[in-house]
Amino acid sequence: MLAGLDPEQREVATALRGPVCVLAGAGTGKTRAITHRIAYGVRAGVLQPASVLAVTFTNRAAGEMRGRLRQLGAPGVQTRTFHSAALRQLQYFWPRAVGGELPRLLERKVQLVAEAAARARIRLDRNELRDVTGELEWAKVTQTAPEDYAAVLAKAGRDAPRDPAEIAGVYRGYEQLKRDRGVIDFEDVLLLTVGVLQDRPDIAEQVHRQYQHFVVDEYQDVSPLQQRLLDLWLGGRDSLCVVGDASQTIYSFTGATPDHLLDFRVRHPDATVVKLVRDYRSTPQVVHLANGVLAQATGRAAAARLELVAQREPGPEPVFTEYADEPAEAEGTARHIRRLIDAGVAPGSIAVLFRINAQSEVYEQALADRSVPYQLRGAERFFERPEVREAGVALRGAARAGGNDALLAEAARDGDLAAQVRAVLGTKGWSAEPPAGSGAARDRWESLAALVRLAEDFGRARPEASLGDLVDELAERAAAQHAPTVEGVTLASLHAAKGLEWDAVFLVGLTEGMLPITYAKTPEQVEEERRLLYVGVTRARVHLSLSWALARAPGGRAGRRPSRFLTGLRPGSGRGGGAGAVSQGGVERGGAERGAGARRRRRGPVRCRVCGRTLTDAGEIKLMRCEDCPSDMDEGLYERLRDWRADQARQLGQPAYCVFTDKTLIAIAEAMPVNEQELSVISGVGRRKLDRYGADVLDLCAGREPSGEAAGEP
Q1: Residues 6+ away with beta carbon under 8 Å from 267
Q2: Tens digits of residue pLDDT in 649-689
Q3: Model pTM?
Q4: Exposed, middle or buried: residue 466 (CB in 10 Å: 0-12, 13-18, 19+)?
Q5: Which residue spans within 342-393 are E strands per DSSP?
Q6: 635-643 contact pairs (CB < 8 A, 24+)
Q7: In sequence order, what are the beta bridge partners of 321?
Q8: For residue 605, how many other CB atoms are within 10 A of its CB?
Q9: Whole-number percent of the chain with pLDDT over 70
């Protein structure tokens, strides 16, 4: 269960008691760490699967966590979003707490908000209606009543999309319409669950008996209302593990705040804090740029930022491109994407990310012109597409009557679940080869192909699974809106891209007024825009392109400027200023252990001793210099160290790298330490190796023959 975890991930997995806070940078394997923690706790008998509630913020993330836990042998753990967990409890306890059936859930509140505005004689266009709806959601998750809205707004320093008195009037009218029609919205689900748990100690006690252990992912996005619900679930207990990264706080407009994450140690002095900074997602070039974006950040979240350390092999440098106008930028982006696809990069592993959805149209056209398939993230839900609904009906029918179909029966006898699905969906428009070009036919094929790939993955994970099992899986995914991956270039806003990753990412439209967006006025709002760029950069595994256009349309005035966030990062833009302290990986233990020699690692950034640049690549950190900076290594000492290492490895019967890696030997030959203190600061020379090999290494550095006793020590 612990094999394959790095030291910090292992600390997470084995920290099963008391409050635990995991500060996890982008791409550092947080989901792996927390799922292994739950599964390890179940295997160790510390956690009972049914007593664990793991909550996150998206159905996709909850579905991914559920799938990983099932593969790790912990299928009974409840993994849900805050809303779905609360709704499940509310539906169960409502008849007992209130009586009757739970009011109907309002799926979309826009129409009711529009009606409330009309009754108040307030005219709202489409954009204003969306903004006012968002403002009502913010008011509810911050537990602000209509009569308090204006005062709370002023205290928060928040800009309202309309006159606060008008919004308060729409808010009152909206709540009255809901009462009149016997419906509740998603925010009411949380509010009502909080009310039931507060007012009914007997129900709260039943919930406490059911759930003894809690895991909260993306904790930086928790709203005050969600934190209140979590506190009621806990009931004063401290079996809580939270995971988050303040540098990825990008939803404050919804009421999310990183304060709960940043203050976790204040509220839980005995907490174990583990910092994950080893980036397994992105190349050193992408990681270096991501660290550079945050190096200029200010504010409370910036003070706690994590400096990522790349673990992947080097890749291409990020590309910065300036275009004359937006159509030229879209055409240039589509041209670059076409080259990547022709070179073997799958369309589904490419994304174009922008600040607002209105920017997508020109990229849709440019990709279509080059026959590049694409999907618009945040558009129609996958399981609501007509072809997906038809496919579901066909698969259910085939599962019931598969024995009467010769082709299905033969595939079932061979145990090939995917073959059965391909046979069924072949009657609905799926084929082994996609249709040419884009358009409705290609969109339909992509949806069906996504179901085929899901069946292939499901069959590999559960070789004994039947077609009926797959139908049940699809029903569960549809209920949770956990859609499979559709093969095509993803077009998405930066907000919608959170939690996803691609081999190639194109960040487009990076101009002042767009990023940061025009209405970001306060320092806090501007810093959130910077974090949006950071989230975008860290979505890329290998290829990263950043671009901007000087004019909106061809022939227009070239009055735009590239985003201020690129200053010091793009070529020829000068150097950006540094921020305050950064956090590196390690473990901090709370409570009494803190004063009893608990292991703590609190170091500043590692900088090249030649040019002073912050180092992020693991190999460069070992050398304490950039790979391309000049080396002052003592070649003779290096050869003596290699010969000594080979002798030690032979005596131990282990590979040479188990003694010291090549990079560590180079670092020693460059530093030529004269005492244990100087040797101990070289990366790769820990306490154990210092005790075992330190005397021999220092003898070699001094030109003396080593004692030769090191390998014989216990």
Answers
A1: none
A2: 888 877 787 788 888 888 898 888 888 888 888 877 877 88
A3: 0.70
A4: middle
A5: 350-354, 374-376
A6: 635/669, 637/668, 637/669, 637/672, 637/700, 637/701, 638/665, 638/666, 638/669, 640/700, 641/665, 641/668, 641/669, 641/697, 641/700
A7: 547
A8: 17
A9: 86
